[in-house]
Specification:
The chain is mainly beta and 190 residues long. The protein is built from one helix and eight strands, in the order H-E-E-E-E-E-E-E-E. It has two domains: 32 residues; 149 residues, Porin (Beta Barrel). The longest helix is centred in the first third of the chain and has 28 residues.
């Protein structure tokens, strides 16, 4: 069946109108997904694989993580993060706590998940026996990494995070990996 010129023109216009309607609907949906909370509070479980290339062998530590994030706009904020770990190395029970702060870059354009990246600087406090140190000590720590918040609803999400943690003990650099998961409570709006 051949279409005459007017019928073809009418169908072309209908296609354009349909594409415009779909585009408007798409932008409305993404605009709704751009709700950015003013504050986020996170708490959960954290695992650290410590001392990947430092003196002695690497070891496992388990613990918890807590953080507070202030979102200054829909893509940038600041995060204070505290982690506490316990484990055993060479038959000695050891503990470590990190205290870091730094910028977080998030992408709040999706409806169900928010990917982010961060770089934080601060300190680590470790107990006697950690990496063979003779007494507890505070040293420099730096964390870089990222993760994703999986939205449950407007005020809650599940956070999954992976980080590289650099520490400095015994005048050497230790490379550590840290994996965390927990609940995020979100409130306020930017």
């Amino acid at each position: 069946m051949q279409l005459n010129g007017r019928e073809r023109l009418r169908r072309e216009r209908m296609k354009r109108v349909m594409w415009v309607v779909l585009a408007v609907l798409f932008f409305c949906i993404t605009a709704r997904a751009q709700e950015t909370p003013a504050w986020e509070i996170n708490g959960g479980y954290s695992y650290m694989r410590a001392n990947l290339n430092g003196p002695g062998s690497s070891f496992h530590m388990n613990g918890g993580i807590a953080s507070v994030t202030e979102n200054l706009n829909d893509w940038f904020g600041g995060r204070l993060e505290i982690s506490a770990f316990g484990g055993s190395t060479g038959g000695t029970n050891v503990t470590a706590q990190t205290f870091t702060y730094g910028p977080v870059f998030a992408y709040h354009k999706f409806d169900r998940f928010i990917p982010y990246a961060h770089a934080q600087f601060g300190a680590i406090h470790a107990s006697q026996g950690y990496l063979g140190i003779s007494q507890s000590a505070n040293k420099f720590a730096m964390t870089t990494g990222g993760g994703v918040d999986l939205k449950i609803n407007r005020t809650a999400a599940i956070r999954v995070q992976a980080d590289y943690l650099l520490t400095k003990f015994l005048s050497q650099t230790q490379n550590n990996l840290q994996f965390s998961t927990g609940l995020v409570i979100r409130f306020g709006q930017k």
